[in-house]
Amino acid sequence: MQRDAWRSAVTMASREEITICEDEVRSLYSHLEKMTDLVAVWEVALSDGVHKIEFEHGTTSGKRVVYVDGKEEIRKEWMFKLVGKETFTVGASKTKATINIDAVSGFAYEYTLEINGKSLKKYMENRSKTTNTWVLSLGGADYRVVLEKDTMDVWCNGQKMETAGEFVEDGTETHFSVGDHSCCIKAVSSGKRKEGIIHTLIVDDREIPETVE
Predict the structure, then answer these.
(1) What is the pLDDT of residues 100-153, one digit of tens each?
(2) For the chain, how long is the longest CA-to-CA vector?
(3) What DSSP character marks residue 211?
(4) SS3 for 199?
(5) DSSP conformation class of 109
(6) How far from chain centre, in Å, is Cα 176?
(7) What's the predicted TM-score (pTM) here?
């Protein structure tokens, strides 16, 4: 009787182990499948932050999945046509983004990202001319401040800031606050046609060096 009870307990334990192993294998397979289908990752610096775009493409099933900052934006299963494009928006300003899928040769594919109709490289080159970015630390917290030169809009950590502009003797000043800290972006003419206007961020009377993204 005691031996039968022991044999039954061993059998139940074995079944539990098998079930656990099956679940682990299933989970691992699902994870590997997802990793295998991940074909491209891009980082796009916009005024409201740096956004991560991931694209999964199942070349056997035709599956297409787009993630923006870890959130699923598009999912299409069993697409007969393996080439094409997927369009979606990124960030607070709903910036238009398009992933192009092109066949290179045989079963090889090329994936390119366009932002507002321009290649990512061209878009970022153009953006570097129309924006200024500063990254700084205040009270142990990190902040990313972006100035859009064409509109003079100021963004900080994804939020569009309330600003007050004024004309001063040598140019303009745009004032705003980050927590208890007083901030000001000074715009002064460089005196050189190619350089144009120079923008400088001052926080608590301290000049912050510009960041190149």
Answers:
(1) 999 998 788 999 999 999 999 999 999 999 999 999 999 899 999 999 999 999
(2) 100
(3) -
(4) strand
(5) E
(6) 26
(7) 0.77
